[in-house]
């Protein structure tokens, strides 16, 4: 009996140690970023660790200049503080008690980047490459029969029509016109399709003439979107910007829209639909294509939209640009958010960073943010649509942007790290080239 209890106890102890090992393992990211010239606290560990590895730049660990990373000891409870005076990359191998291999980490030393936080309300006009399929239907012919040409040809919602009979298509009106002309000649249609999975394929089908004499193939299509969002940051030397913090998708398929052309325009907020539990709120914005064009849209990806500025915006809270925080510099605690809730006036609001996900690789949901500003909660109910891209500043650094609202708890939502947004631009490369 005692032997069985001992075996069970030993098994339980081994299981506990393995579980504890993996908990500690995943608490330390595989990659850290820090800013050149700034000492940064990376992590604290409950056991003795030794650190060795390879590097090509000068490094200070816990205040001591190291020529070679060779079995540096980190005592239990002592945090690891690193400072580098050169841009580059350092690989470190961690060993428990100096014996057992634990984890390899990479430290990326980045140049200090300064940008102006945004907060401006922007109208977004985006035109797609090709014509997007957003729905399917039937075509009722002159004799009253229903036909499904597109469905029978295998065209799906989320596909994109790139060509019709060898002619490039980027406009839904041109698509309709070409279908009519080709069908009136008695010719079949040959479509070049890009599927949701990114594959190209040829589709042959025949249009059906409806009761009004219009030839149709049974599709609903679109060639762009328009909406209201928030400018996140802008840089005045290279004249680049980032906005939204998340990708723009086609509503029916939820596929990212490939950019053919686009622009961001100065917008005004004319009203607010407050958010409630289970019902997200929204900003009601107005803008016109003839209004002040702030810039063009070059890129639409999971971290937002990016492009070049035509005019330099203004945030009255910042007369000078602020540093962009490395992820390791972002802290749980109070911060400021900048956004427009009335007309075109940027306002400053109190938020709290409640949770930080230590991401080793770029990800779109790195922060959990809560609105603690009572006035903003009374005006909007919390985070609302149109607030995406609102910059978050903490301790004089831009740390991220609001991206998503928790539908069932609208005072909270996700944010994306500013570091990941900056990596989508050429600003880091420009500064890396000028720093040695």
From TrEMBL:
Gene3D superfamilies (UniProt xref): 2.30.42.10
EC top class named in words: hydrolase
Entry-linked InterPro entries: PDZ_sf (IPR036034), Peptidase_S55 (IPR008763), SpoIVB (IPR014219)
One annotated GO molecular function: hydrolase activity
Residue ranges annotated for the Peptidase S55 domain, each copy included: 199-436
Pfam family, one: Peptidase_S55
Transmembrane regions: 7-26
Presence of the UniProt keyword Iron-sulfur in the record: no
EC assignment: 3.4.21.116
Keywords: Hydrolase, Membrane, Transmembrane, Transmembrane helix
Name under which the protein is recorded: SpoIVB peptidase
The species this protein was found in: Iocasia fonsfrigidae
């Amino acid at each position: 009996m005692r032997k069985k209890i001992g075996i069970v106890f030993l098994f339980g102890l081994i299981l506990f140690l393995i579980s504890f090992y993996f908990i500690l393992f995943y608490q330390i990211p595989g990659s850290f970023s820090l800013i050149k010239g700034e000492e940064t606290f990376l992590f604290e560990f409950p056991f003795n660790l030794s650190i060795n590895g390879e590097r090509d730049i000068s490094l200070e660990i816990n205040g001591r200049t190291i020529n070679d990373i060779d079995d540096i000891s980190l005592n239990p409870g002592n945090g690891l503080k690193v400072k580098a005076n050169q841009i580059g990359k350092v690989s470190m191998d961690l060993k428990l008690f100096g014996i057992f291999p634990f984890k390899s980490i990479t430290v990326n030393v980045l140049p200090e980047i300064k940008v102006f936080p945004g907060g401006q309300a922007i109208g977004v006009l985006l035109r797609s490459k090709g014509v997007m399929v957003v729905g399917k239907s039937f075509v009722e012919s002159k004799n009253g029969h229903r036909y499904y040409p597109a469905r029978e040809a295998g065209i799906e919602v989320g596909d994109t029509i790139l060509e019709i009979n060898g002619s490039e298509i980027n406009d839904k009106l041109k698509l309709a016109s070409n279908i009519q002309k080709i069908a009136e000649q008695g010719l079949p249609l040959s479509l070049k399709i890009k599927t949701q999975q990114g594959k190209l394929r040829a589709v042959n089908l025949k249009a059906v003439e409806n009761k009004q004499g219009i030839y149709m193939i049974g599709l609903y299509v679109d060639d762009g979107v328009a909406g209201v969002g928030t400018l996140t940051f802008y840089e005045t030397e290279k004249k680049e910007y980032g906005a939204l913090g998340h990708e723009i998708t086609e509503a029916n398929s939820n596929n990212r829209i490939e950019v053919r052309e686009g622009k961001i325009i100065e917008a005004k907020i004319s009203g607010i639909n407050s958010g409630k539990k289970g019902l997200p709120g929204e900003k009601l914005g107005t803008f016109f294509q003839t209004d002040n064009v702030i810039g063009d849209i070059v890129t639409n990806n999971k971290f937002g939209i990016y492009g070049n500025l035509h005019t330099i915006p203004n945030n009255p809270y910042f007369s000078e640009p602020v540093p962009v925080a490395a992820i390791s510099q972002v802290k749980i605690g109070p911060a400021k958010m900048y956004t427009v809730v009335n007309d075109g006036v940027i306002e400053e609001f109190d938020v709290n960073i409640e949770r930080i996900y230590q991401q080793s690789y770029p990800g779109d949901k790195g922060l959990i943010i809560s609105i603690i500003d009572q006035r903003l909660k009374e005006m909007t109910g919390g985070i609302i649509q149109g607030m995406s891209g609102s910059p978050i500043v903490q301790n004089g650094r831009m740390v991220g942007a609001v991206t998503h609202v928790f539908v069932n708890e609208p005072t909270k939502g996700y944010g994306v790290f500013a570091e990941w947004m900056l990596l989508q631009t050429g600003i880091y490369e420009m500064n890396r080239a000028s720093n040695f």
